[in-house]
Amino acid sequence: MLDIKFIRENSDLIKEAARKKRINFDVDKLIEIDDTRRELLKFVEEKRAYHNAVSKRIGSLRGEERNLNIRAAEQLKEELSDKEKELKRIEEKWYESMLQVPNIPDLSVPEGESDVDNQEIKKWGEIPHFDFDPKNHIELMESLGLVELERGSKTAGFRGYFLKGDAVLLVFGIMQFTLEKLIENGFEPLIAPSLVKEESLLGTGWLPQGKDEVYKTQDDLYLSGTAEVPMMGFHMNEILKEEDLPKTYVAFSPCFRREAGSYGKDTRGLYRLHEFMKIEQAVLCEAEHQESVKWHEEITRNSEDIMQSLKIPYRVVVNCGADLGLGQVKKYDIEAWVPSERRYKETHSSSYFHDFQTRRLNIRYRDKEGKIRFVHSLNNTAIAVPRILISLLENYQQKDGKVIVPEILRKYLNKDIIS
RNA sequence: GGCGGGGUGCCAGAGCGGUUGAAUGGGACGGUCUUGAAAACCGUUAUACUCGAAAGAGUAUCGUGAGUUCAAAUCUCACCCCCGCCGCCA
Description:
Blueprint: H1 4-9, H2 11-21, H3 27-58, H4 63-98, E1 119-124, H5 137-143, E2 147-148, H6 149-156, E3 162-163, H7 166-184, E4 188-191, E5 195-196, H8 198-204, E6 215-216, E7 222-223, H9 228-233, E8 238-241, E9 247-256, E10 275-285, H10 289-310, E11 314-318, E12 330-338, E13 343-352, H11 356-361, E14 363-366, E15 372-374, E16 376-385, H12 387-395, E17 403-404, H13 410-413, E18 417-418
Parallel strand pairs: 4-9, 8-14
Antiparallel strand pairs: 1-11, 2-3, 5-7, 6-7, 9-10, 10-16, 11-12, 12-13, 13-16, 14-15, 17-18
Helix pairs in contact: 3-4, 5-12
This protein binds one RNA strand through α3 and α4.
């Protein structure tokens, strides 16, 4: 959500944002609705003011004069009621349209039609050269007894899985390591709910656009696809103090995604799952572009540090306009090298939103001058499991099908090699 | 799941259906006094929107939504949340 005043004064920027993000949105229509809304609002408020004045007077009147005024108020009320209904209708329309307004992408965001146009800005690590045909993670994991895919889908349906044996220790070890690292960096650890109310999803921008992507329960609660959602809901409707900013959180949560419309994609293995676990960084900072940029770089670096500690080769891409969500100003993806596919695949996603989310969620702070402003919000994956196992296991595989355990994880498995 | 109590401003806590955006106390901030501090005293202390260059005016908001009424924090209904007791349960 953006400020309607800003939208009115900068409709050309909104048009350009929609174009760059390849989103269909008619700003002029919104402004038209807003004109009607203001007109009606003015009328209704003036009538109400008059009606309030009459009503107030009635309290101190007696006898015939009282009755006269009551009758006058009755009539005013009737005159009001139609316009009030009309105003309500237009306000609903207005809100619906406001939810569609794209946030403005940063100038540094490249043009593009899809994720293939994302631009690589950094590469780290040596791509391993095998003197044998590297196995993919499914072959590796099945032969090492680390996964149960058939029993997974027998039990949990399509994309169901069990992790087993050392994979379990690996997952918990990676998460423990990640948590410790971020706590060291001053992030506050939380275990966040996955079962959330609609407000948080609407506020973060997952709804209404992504309604096919989230599971909804019979109690009208939703299963969140990321801890970003509950962590943004965390401070909903609050006014924070400037000295409390930035708020930096590292939150664990199970994550659920319907993956609607992706039936043909990544059907085997642990890349695309309905249910996984993630540790997420979430930041609320002062409402300055430079602060957002600074934190964006920092949370990206945090994730890179983790990848470097795991010694997994990766690259960072800056996402092109069409690959940005409605609310995102800029996004980096970290992509890890997957030997069996000879390409990098997304493991982390780091974005900032300015006040797009916090306007929807009403998260504000009082600045030094006492002015109330919307905070800025950001988030990035710290680690997503089991997805990270794909590149981890494949990159660390040996000719004999065994897998070397990354040094920093050995203490969690009590071994150097998975065989 | 059953029964009972409750949700008011930064906090605590009042509030016969009419002049209540809301008493009172505390806190915070500003001031007087003081060498300084404390105490005392005086003052300030919600948010959003609309109109306006501004000063200011208006509208809305007492968990949320709907309703009754000329008028709702106060009455009715639904929902959400919190507290207590019983039952069940990792």
